[in-house]
Specification:
Elements: H1 3-15, E1 25-33, E2 36-39, H2 41-54, E3 57-66, E4 69-77, E5 85-94, E6 97-104
Parallel strand pairs: 1-6
Antiparallel strand pairs: 1-2, 3-4, 4-5, 5-6
């Protein structure tokens, strides 16, 4: 499986409103985002599932892969009045597992 195929499993989980159990996360995965860090796949999966249940769409703008990384730029739609939120994300992939994630976006856009 290529790095892009591994990343596609992750992004498809949002559209399927999945529990993310099929996403190949390393057990010691580290996620970093505007609101802090999350350590461990078992901690991250339910958080992502909750977000997926609220999302109205993910429109991929651009992806590039190389050297064990996939960089994605996309619009994430939560049905908010301001429209979709532009996001950039770096997935580090090793041996067909996502081992690290870094997400960048304007966190103020998600505030109530």
């Amino acid at each position: 499986m290529t790095d892009l195929e591994t990343a596609a499993i992750y992004y498809r989980a949002f559209d399927e409103r999945s529990d993310f159990s099929e996403v190949p996360f390393a057990e010691d995965l580290c996620f970093r985002g505007p609101n802090g860090e999350v350590e461990g796949a078992d901690t991250l999966r339910p958080m992502l599932a909750g977000l997926a249940s609220r999302h109205a769409g993910l429109a991929m703008r651009h992806q590039v892969a190389g050297e064990g990384q996939v960089i994605s730029v996309y619009d994430f739609d939560l049905g908010l009045a301001g429209g979709p939120i532009p996001m950039a994300e770096r997935l580090e992939i090793r041996g067909e597992e996502i081992v690290a994630m870094e997400l960048l976006f304007d966190a103020a856009r998600m505030a109530p």
